[in-house]
Amino acid sequence: MRRTVGAVVLALGSFLVVAAILLPTYVAGNLVKTPLDQYTVSVATSDNATVFDVATLTEQQNVPVEATRTVRADPEKSTDDVVVFDAFLVLQDARDGKQITFTSDRVGLDRRTAEAQPGFDAAVDDEATEHEGLIYKWPFGAEKKSYDYFDTTTKKTYEAKYVTSEDVNGLEAYKYEMQVPATKIGALEVPGELVGSTEPSVNADRYYSNTRTVWVEPKTGIILKGQEKQSQTLRDAAGADKVTLFAATLTFDDQTVNEAVSLAKDSISQITIVSTVAPIVIGILGVILIVVGLFLVLRRGGQPESSFRTTKPSDTRTPVKS
User: Fold this and answer.
1) pTM score of the predicted model
2) Membrane spanning segments where (predicted)?
């Protein structure tokens, strides 16, 4: 019976040791993924934007603006390996809530590497658009190197270069920066006088540029803070900027940064439990059970020696007298 119990304990201990080895490798790799129910809202603001007012055909200076981006996962269209995101960006005048621009985006991302995946009805502003590189997050275990990052305005990928490491509300963050050079993104029909033409109206080329900076928590790939220095202009026939449609430095507000830091801390705790704490605890318990199991199986057992003595019975017969 003792050997049977020992064998069971030994098998259980061996199982726990194997589990401890697999947890930080295979198991953690399958558990540490972007959740399929993710829903985040980030707000970036600027107090001194330049905004072109269509009604008066003039540039308005020092306009407070607010850019709200909502990113939500689509569980029904996602898979075990790919999460599908729908993202909506609304830029509005913070004074009266008047909408300045609106952008929608749909993309499938690898749940571990955060790389855009082909298909999944990827689109920008409802126009089919294949994405490449990263967007909305960095991979788990981000490195101090450059990554390709997708820009929804130009629908192109640019290099996001690692710059340095900085503290963001108590968490170490990797700072990445990408440059979007002035790029033509369309044309806009406007009165010719706006761009120095004598024609009543002209189709002026619309150009966009951006310097995007993000601060990423490396273990989780969560963007803790973001900043964009955007500019959109109209150019004349010679290619010179004539009208500023929009120009601002948009930066995540404090609430967005605090919420991102809180989310990152929770995710780090979960990753630490799966990849470090649980394997150590399970591994130690497994080793203890193996030792106990071996002790029970290998311990010598048997019946203890008898303490009874065999004695010659005494003769109780009565002697016969002669």
Assistant:
1) 0.80
2) 277-298
